[in-house]
């Protein structure tokens, strides 16, 4: 049965492409909520060639199809969503326990009243100093720059999401671009819990190289370099570091 607007607590939108290794854990974290919480879950598949779709359907969630593009897929999910609050979750990320309760508690605090936000920081699914370092630096960026990234599970009221123009069609940095527009409507509500994210990218390139690559792309974007050029450089640098 389709949910009417406002019948559910939160719409969780998960864009994915060939994420059979991670989609199960992501969905388990989304659905493992107290009986009072009623998430609507929309998995938006970008033409996966593995078992991603079958695994998602096995959880009984709504599966939508889209051309492969994270920004496009998230917009498709947002348009189909039924709840007042949207949460965008990467397919290789795991939400903390009782995440909806934590979001509601944070949003109800007078000093953090906001129509958008994210989880304060992330940790890698592989323990070690890299995870601890990343957790500390992401927390500082979120608190002092008010700049959470997409892997921190950005949530936003659907009306505000539409007013700022949703996600722009970009090959990367779509999360930073959205957050920059959302910040004009106030600082984010930062939920003081960790998102667990896959360590695969950090392990593949290394902490230092991954950080420098990310910051180089961000700096280029802020200086006005075309995002298509940055995307080509980003993917080329990633492939070169794997050789």
Automatic annotation (TrEMBL):
Superkingdom, taxonomy of origin: Eukaryota
Keyword field contains Transferase: yes
One term of GO molecular function: glycosyltransferase activity
CDD domains in the record: GT_2_like_a
Keywords: Cell membrane, Glycosyltransferase, Membrane, Transferase
Domain Glycosyltransferase 2-like: 11-102
Location, primary (coarse class): membrane
Key word Transferase present: yes
Annotated GO CC locations: plasma membrane
Entry-linked InterPro entries: Glyco_trans_2-like, Nucleotide-diphossugar_trans, Trfase_2_rSAM/seldom_assoc
Subcellular location: Cell membrane
Pfam families linked: Glycos_transf_2
Name under which the protein is recorded: Glycosyltransferase 2-like domain-containing protein
């Amino acid at each position: 049965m389709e949910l009417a607007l406002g019948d559910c607590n939160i719409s969780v939108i998960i864009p994915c492409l060939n994420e059979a290794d991670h989609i199960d854990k992501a969905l388990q974290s989304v659905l493992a909520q107290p009986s009072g919480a009623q998430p609507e879950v929309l998995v938006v598949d970008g033409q996966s060639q593995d078992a991603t779709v079958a695994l998602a359907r096995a959880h009984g969630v709504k599966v939508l199809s889209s051309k492969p593009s994270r920004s496009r897929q998230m917009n498709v999910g947002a348009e189909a969503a039924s709840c007042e609050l949207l949460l965008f979750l990467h397919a290789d990320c795991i939400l903390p326990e009782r995440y909806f309760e934590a979001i509601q508690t944070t949003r109800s605090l007078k000093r953090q009243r906001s129509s958008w936000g994210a989880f304060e920081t992330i940790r890698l699914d592989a323990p070690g100093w890299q995870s601890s370092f990343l957790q500390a630096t992401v927390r500082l960026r979120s608190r002092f720059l008010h700049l959470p990234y997409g892997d921190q599970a950005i949530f936003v009221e659907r009306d505000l999401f539409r007013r700022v123009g949703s996600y722009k069609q970009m090959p990367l940095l779509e999360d930073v671009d959205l957050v920059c527009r959302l910040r004009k409507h106030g600082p984010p509500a930062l939920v003081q819990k960790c998102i667990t994210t896959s360590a695969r990218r950090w392990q593949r390139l290394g902490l230092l190289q991954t950080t420098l690559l990310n910051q180089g792309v961000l700096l280029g974007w802020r200086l006005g370099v075309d995002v298509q050029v940055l995307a080509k450089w980003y993917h080329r640098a990633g492939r070169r570091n794997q050789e």
